[in-house]
Amino acid sequence: MAISAKMARLGTETAFDVLARANALAAGGMDVINLGIGQPDFPTPENIVEAAVKALRDGKHGYTAANGIPELREAVTEDILKYREVEVNPDHIIAVPGGKVTMAFAIEMFGEDGAEIMYPNPGFPIYESMIRFTGAIPIPIRLIEENGFSFDAETVLSQITERTRLIILNTPANPTGGIVPKAELEKLAEGLKKHPEVYVLSDEIYSRMTYDGEGHCSMLQFPDLRDRLIILDGWSKTYAMTGWRMGWGLWPEHLVPHAQRLCVNFHSCVNAAAQYAGIEALKGDQGPVDKMMAAFDERRALIHARLNGAPGVRCVLPKGAFYAFPNISGTGLSAKEMQDRLLNEKGVAVIAGTSFGAEGEGYVRFSYANSLENIERAMDRFDDFLKGL
Ligand code: PLP
Question: Which atom of ligand 1 is nearest to the CA of 245?
């Protein structure tokens, strides 16, 4: 068999492997508590489900325009105006099947042999995977625990070379729950004025998921970057719609035809009925989002306190998303050992920090997309496990 060499460079997302192992253990009778999963444990709000059902009954069964139906793209621009306070053209919005697709398209567009692409580390594993797939060189942007898992803009700017094509940013972040402060983003945007050839992919999929009244600072706030900025967002997290496969990208005008050709080549269009659900999600009642975030906030406080009470563990307070990323180096276990032993011996699924890049050694990701009761039970088991070491 002679498949292309680039296939050997394609990575994966370990979270799916841990999920499969957790399910296998549960099927064998183990009581598994899943704090590994990166999706809200809430159902998609009823009004959104109904909009999709109606669309199906109304016969919305065919292909749509590759970039999405106009009403959906309009709804996205209204959402951008409401939450990011910037007016954008609906023709620059491209609806895609999930947030990942905007990521893949942007990295495909800029990655090739010899090019450099910068990405957060620890970060969403698909960034590095896709960068390597294209033949480009992944240049990690180190996230710093002491800075709440933000980066230092000066360091990022100093890593730019004549080969740098794209910088990937993600705030609020997976797996750390960290937020990059506005001042740091401002510094970065200011410094990028000296590098007009470098593009930015801002992964803002957790933009509505912040705590303590800390708003989200979108990269759209920096007008000088607009003609080289790609925004990634979608419905998966905010509206508990991971299985619907709904995402959108905002592209600079000159990249829109390229992104559209990628759509036509890869998936033709997003599931038609899901697009109608997407409109309802954006334009309908936002109450369920607020309720979900209030629940996450309570769980965040609980898990943060429990993690900091565990021997050999310390954890910064997550400021966004629904992940805690404790430092476990004081336990003497590696991240992978902690992941495997906690699952096999105690039935608690978490994800090793190294699944998110080399900089994740010494950390483990706990997702608090689970009930308060299950978080308490999981943390009791975690304490037991650590005491037994
Ligand atoms: N970006 C980040 C930072 C994520 O954590 C995820 C999913 O976990 C995605 C993008 C992909 O989202 P989707 O499921 O919509 O493809």
Answer: 15
